[in-house]
User: What shape does this take?
Amino acid sequence: MSELYDINTRLEEVNSRKWNLADIEARFARLVQNGTGGKTYDQAEMKRDKNAILERVRLRAEEYCYLTKNCAKGAATALFEEFGLGNMEIVRGLAAAPGIAMSGEICGPVTAGLLAIGLYFSNPDVMNHDAPIAYLQSRVFLDRYAAALGSLHCPAIQERLLGKYYDPMASPENLKEYFKSSARNSCTVAPGIGVAIAAEIIIDSMEG
Assistant: This one.
């Protein structure tokens, strides 16, 4: 794993960052107004500029997660913006996706990454149900995410990023403790790493 996916490096960086909320919110608002679809790009250029793109999409996912306080929404927004996928209504629908309604299940960026990969690799014709490449690339994503974060599930990832699993929805006390932790900064690491993995899979599949 490169430094891009190194958890300790990412934690140190996000916890020392000065977040420019005004700029992040303005960019997010433009996506809400203008949408994420219809983007065109040169695949050869994207392959050439892959490292810069991965850094950009990672940073955007961290920023959007920090803004929305939602790892799934942050990850999806960054991937949709970069690759012209989906729309902001889908992002809105991911409100309950972190840890599957904070139930301790699948981490939000896993859901967002699979959604982006499904949109990118499936046939634009929704009546065409033949999508083996989407399954195959999704399995690659799952394997790489688990290798980078140590798990696909929220409790283990919280332990890795925050030092313990808070189970925020279990009680008002747990929720209060969770908000007092470094979660708002530290939990941005998971969507940042997740979108970089998903973006790398997409770019590596391109021709040129």
